[in-house]
């Protein structure tokens, strides 16, 4: 049975049982008969049983899908805004650490890269994978350790599926408040603790006395339910995300505990950490047990939690222990997330056309790549390049592949320093701070022009120059947002400056004057194309030298612009070339 049919059948049965519960309750109220009330309770119990069975089936389907589609990309909706909160907490705790900034992230289309690479099974996993991509490493030892774990999941199917079984059981939480519970100081009014304890036992007592007093005092039960509902919703508005995430926190701890029992020498570092932390956190697991909502039962769950303050009591019972054991919770959460993230990278590798593990040089400004390609480009054309201390000026006609090549270099440099994986045959590189200025945009809301955004993007690169680690600086069409005279001269001075301050720079430009002005400090490469009566032909191959041709007018001709425009444009260009 597929998930669509499962949801359909469970929805039909739930609807029927919901009607039955309503009818039985009406009969119980009308005839004051205890047996009709039992019918109501039985109908509700069957609804929860259906959701329980459905959850078990979905878990089994997800596990089978994990095994069947290993190494394959499966499209799913990703809430990056929710996922990146974990990285923000990490960033606050590690303020001296270099991170990929927002401009570079956008320039390299990293949201799409993350989507393709994300084969994680849990919320800690997808959050850790995002954090890994945002924080390139500058230690080869750390990357080699990371790579050894990735290889285990690639090569050891038994261990991979054993870990995958436990991670699938945990699954993802649509809106994960666990990281807020662990990393934030939660301010709550503890007077609610005593109120909810009283309401819980008073309401329960009112229900249990119905068989004794029949329906004589049902007004008391109704009153407690009303008070419960008001108190529940008032409290819920303040700490709803935390309260509803306690069940998932319970799952995280228990999953970590089960994975810690897996016998695999290569995973011993992870299993030892999980064993040590989960054993200390079992008291939190016990106090948060039994409140995880079954997916698809939100309406019924809300009704139950409105009548009985189950979640709130669990919350108050657990919150003090959570605060005391915050350090252990952080370690456990990050370790479990790292296991899931590294297994996701192993799957990502399997889906690549080919890849290599990078070789790092701990000095200089080197970047040598053989048959490097962009993993997001279908039927991508590979190129090779060798750079040692000198950057490049890249020229070429429109649509010939300059921007894609720049993104290819930037992305693979980031992949090398994060997941120890490059879409290339061989890749040798220094460690770099990776910064780009490829697609700064006009910001209408702030009133910033295109040129202003370009200037801002370049200034952040300049600010990073001169540090211990060299900067890999990638710029597409430097200062395209201003006039040619100022553009060329300002560009030349900026490229001269950053070239002298520990930077390996790759810049694409249409300004051929720059190649003459900077020929001693930069190598020149270009892309080209052919245009004939049959259309445009691009080979996307990197070539030594400077592109002497232009294709803007040819493109207009190819698109069948009026002959008058083409002719007069060519006449203007001829006059300019003569002056």
TrEMBL record:
Pfam families membership: MutS_V
DNA-binding as UniProt keyword: yes
Annotated Gene3D superfamilies: P-loop containing nucleotide triphosphate hydrolases (3.40.50.300)
Gene Ontology cellular component terms for the protein in this record: cytosol
InterPro entries xrefs: DNA_mismatch_repair_MutS_C, DNA_mismatch_repair_MutS_sf, MutS, P-loop_NTPase
GO biological process, one term: mismatch repair
GO molecular function list: ATP binding; ATP-dependent DNA damage sensor activity; mismatched DNA binding
Keywords annotated in UniProt: ATP-binding, DNA-binding, Nucleotide-binding
The name this protein goes by in its record: DNA mismatch repair protein MutS
Gene behind this protein: mutS_3
